[in-house]
Design a protein that fits this description.
The chain is α/β, with parallel strands linked by helices. The protein contains 4 helices and 9 strands. The protein has one domain. 41% of the residues are buried.
């Protein structure tokens, strides 16, 4: 199925399960090269993960497969496909041709910097380069989305490298193109949490194209 519109509104308790699908969000050649949308999607993943022992029980962009990974080796990767100068980092994403004007989201291993489904020397080259330049972003090795490449990210890639068991499936593409009616690949689940104030996190996949 194809997702035609993606929006973010102030709902705070909405959850969307990407499962093991891929999501492609068009940025329409934003002036910031998709940086703002990448931050929004990254924050939605962080919200869903909810940190610590309670991983993947919060609102936002989640993956039931990552939640069921008791070893914690997998996650949702959010990659801005623009290198900052209008050129694409990846030209193909699970068999789909993609350009620089897209943000890519995929269920994969912690440390799979180039989203090819396996952790190898290519990924270590990228995190080593990212550590030196400190540019940030998934492609540069910021696997926990804290804005820096440090020992925490090396712990994630090292653990997943040791624990990986073959190539992860790319899943089904879910493409986002602004301005058309929404078609959701799975139902949006909502969960009210009385212990938290309403903040701007979600409604992910709104009828309003806020992104």
């Amino acid at each position: 199925m194809v997702l035609r519109r993606i929006g973010v509104a102030s709902a705070a308790h909405t959850r969307f399960d990407l499962h093991n699908a891929r999501l492609i969000l068009a940025t329409n050649a934003d002036a910031d090269h998709g940086a703002a949308k990448t931050r929004i999607l990254s924050n939605l993943v962080l919200s869903a993960m909810n940190g610590g022992a309670n991983r993947w029980n919060g609102p936002g962009l989640t993956s039931s497969i990552a939640k069921n990974d008791t070893k914690g080796f997998t996650t949702l990767a959010v990659l801005n496909n623009d290198d900052g100068q209008g050129k694409a980092l990846l030209h193909s994403f699970g068999g789909t041709v993609v350009g620089a004007n897209s943000v890519l989201v995929k269920y994969t291993w912690n440390g799979d910097a180039n989203l090819d489904g396996v952790i190898n020397a290519d990924d270590y080259f990228l995190i080593d380069s990212g550590y030196i330049t400190q540019e940030g972003g998934w492609y540069n090795g910021d696997f926990n989305y804290d804005g820096v490449v440090n020992a925490d990210d090396y712990f994630l890639i090292d653990s997943a490298f040791i624990g990986q068991e073959g190539l992860l499936s790319a899943g089904t593409a879910v493409e986002g193109a602004m301005g058309r009616a929404a078609e959701l690949p799975t139902p949006v689940q909502t969960q009210q949490r009385k212990d938290q104030p309403i903040t701007v996190l979600a409604e992910l996949f709104s009828t309003m194209p806020i992104l």
